[in-house]
Amino acid sequence: MSCSLASSAPSCEADTEKEEDNSAAGKNLYNLISTMKMLGVFVLCVCAMMDLTPAADLPEAKDENDQTASSPLVKRTVFRSRYRNRYFYYIHTPLTWAEAERNCQSMGGNLASVHDTHEYHGIQRVIMAASHDYKETWIGGSNGQEDRFWLWSDGTLFHYTNWCPGKPVYSQGQQHCVLMNHSAQKCWGNLQCHYRRPSVCAKKVY
Fold it and tell me: Which residue numbers delimit the C-type lectin domain (predicted)?
């Protein structure tokens, strides 16, 4: 803006100062908008990096989180632990005993058989580590619709038992299957196999 010769000097100086103030304010606004745009891009980049970062594995000594593909029945987002010569997989999804056995077979194993007290406690630790509780869980024993004659689904001998007091109970002509962590004693119970519970699979280490 130019001042006329008739204008007084103080008036010209005031107009010049206003123009300088407006110019400075405009520059500040432009810088603020540019900074906000850059901040928005930075936030988007950080969010994208977080989406691409894999989740941390479960903190444990010998155990590890199984990251295999999903089975036909349930997603195998399961907890895996090695004990002796077998891997044990805790399946959170409640299934019938037959569904649980088929799911274990799809993973190359069977519902877990138990052969001594140490092994039983080892499987209990797998369940506790995965679920933070001693949940009632299917294992591989069933009576095959014949009372008092129990079998493991993996074909091993049924020579060890850990029945709770008063168990097993029988109802003639109905198949019953074995649950671990039953009752307050966390021992074995038996239940009709169509009920849904979490399960433990076992797979041999070769």
Answer: 83-202
Written in H, E and C, the secondary structure of the chain is CCCCCCCCHHHHHHHHHHHHHHHHHHHHHHHHHHHHHHHHHHHHHHHHHHHHCCCCCCCCCCCEECCCCCCCCCCCCCEEEEECCEEEEEEEEEECHHHHHHHHHHCCCEECCCCCHHHHHHHHHHHHHHHCCCCCEEEEEECCCCCCCCEECCCCCCCCCCECCCCCCCCCCCCEEEEEEECCCCEEEEEECCCCEEEEEEEECC
Taking 50 as the threshold, does the pLDDT of residue 48 lie above it?
no
Domain covering 64-204 assigned CATH 3.20.20.140 in the classification: no
Provide the pLDDT for residue 147.
Answer: 74
Q: Which residues pair with 9 in a beta bridge?
A: none
* pLDDT at residue 89 is higher than 80: yes
pLDDT of amino acid 39: 52
Residues linked to residue 79 through DSSP beta bridges, in sequence order = 65, 90
Give pTM, 2 decimals.
0.65
Angle (CA) 150-156-161 rounded to 5° is: 50
φ, ψ of residue 202 in degrees (nearest 5): -130, 140
- Which amino acid does the sequence have at 163? W
